[in-house]
Amino acid sequence: MDANILTSRSLPLASANKLVRSTYQLLALALFVGGATAMLATALQAPPMHFILLLVGFYGLYFALIKMRNSAWALLLMLGLSAFLGYSVGPILTYYLAMPQGGELVATALGTTGLVFAGLSAFTLISKKDFSFLQGFLVAGALILLATIVIGLFVDLSAFSLAISAAFVLFYSCIILYETSRLMHDPNANYVLAAASLFVSIYALFLNFLHLFAAGGE
């Protein structure tokens, strides 16, 4: 696929609108694929995915997507990433659905995720505010959260789990603002990478809202 199809070279209003539309169309397809594989894993009672396998699979697919972002492989890698992450959600859903009022809990987390994503996206698109100033915060936040995950492999951080989940919610909410803003302001924005980033943000928001609401209901 020609690189000019995947990458915005200039951002007049018509080009920005086309980039936004392409991003959200691909995001909708990715959410459908991810939802389908999540339901499949739930129906099959799939065992939880090992944390190392999840990290290797996610980062392997994501870095491959970055490398191949200007080729036709990018679309296949995007859908592969969506399917992989969706399948990883299945065992988590099985766990929460087995709780008292588990269905209500999952529905609440899903609805909250949708409202947060729609609200942040709509605010950015309507206001046309440039959130590029968040880049430094996001880099620092990513490093801090990654360090927290690594430390959690060796130290019990369960006492701080709610605070960590809240931090993830804040971080990925900022990612949504930043990525949506880039679609309108950054001439180098790539719609496949933007859709992937937004998909991962929705995935992370949903899981962390599940954790927060489950803890709040105890």
Q: What does this molecule look like?
A:
Helix 2 crosses helix 4 (73-97), helix 4 runs parallel beside helix 8 (191-216) and helix 5 (102-127) packs parallel to helix 7 (161-185). Residues 1-10 have low confidence and may be disordered. 79% of the residues lie in helices and 0% in strands. The protein has one domain (9-216). It has eight helices and no strands. The chain has 218 residues and is mainly α. It starts with a helix and ends with a helix.
Distance between the ends: 51 Å
Integer average pLDDT: 87
Biggest pleated-sheet summary: none
Structural class assignment: mainly alpha
Unreliable runs, pLDDT <50, ≥5 residues? 1-10
Count of runs of 4 or more consecutive helical residues: 8
What's the structural blueprint in terms of helices and strands?
Layout: H1 3-6, H2 13-43, H3 51-67, H4 73-97, H5 102-127, H6 135-152, H7 161-185, H8 191-216
Helix pairs in contact: 2-4, 2-7, 2-8, 3-4, 4-8, 5-7, 5-8, 6-7, 7-8
Features:
single chain; 218 residues; mainly alpha; 8 helices; disordered N terminus
Produce a short descriptive summary.
This protein is mostly helical and 218 residues long. It contains 8 helices and no strands. The protein has helices at 3-6, 13-43, 51-67, 73-97, 102-127, 135-152, 161-185, 191-216.
